[in-house]
Amino acid sequence: MQTALKRLPDAELEVMKALWDAGRPLTRPELDTALRGRNWAATTVLGLLSRLEGKGFLTRQRQGRGYLYAPAVPRETYLAVEGRSALGRMFAGSAKNLVAALHECDALSREEVDELAAYLETLKRGDP
């Protein structure tokens, strides 16, 4: 796996989400089922799998005439990379700017604000 993970294009991210959601290695036909709303050709899925393997995001293991595909990067690891990337690109690296933008477009309910406040208090105390 690469030491510095890069942000994935949307199509590759959809494949990774399907693998993460499955919680187990999948065959390509099982992956096709998980991606059924995409209507991608088999060659498209195979191309995405090949690129993801080349980038170190997934592994494949021979099983009979096909392969089992499994994430090599945990979802949480990728989310941290994606979060830092979005924060830097769109909010000048400021979490406060992110929350302010969410508030200004009415994307936060009162319950979500309370949830964020409670989480920040947990972080202040040093709890995990």
From TrEMBL:
Q: Name one GO molecular function term.
A: DNA binding
Q: Which UniProt keywords apply?
A: DNA-binding, Transcription, Transcription regulation
* Coiled coil ranges: none
Matches recorded under InterPro entries: BlaI_family (IPR005650), WH-like_DNA-bd_sf (IPR036388), WH_DNA-bd_sf (IPR036390)
What are the BP-aspect GO terms? negative regulation of DNA-templated transcription
The UniProt record lists the keyword Transcription regulation: yes
Q: Name one Pfam family in it.
A: Penicillinase_R
Q: Does the keyword Protein biosynthesis apply?
A: no
Q: Which family does it belong to?
A: Belongs to the BlaI transcriptional regulatory family.
Q: What is this protein called?
A: BlaI/MecI/CopY family transcriptional regulator
Q: Which organism is it from?
A: Anaerofilum hominis
Query: What lineage does UniProt assign to this protein's organism?
Result: Bacteria, Bacillati, Bacillota, Clostridia, Eubacteriales
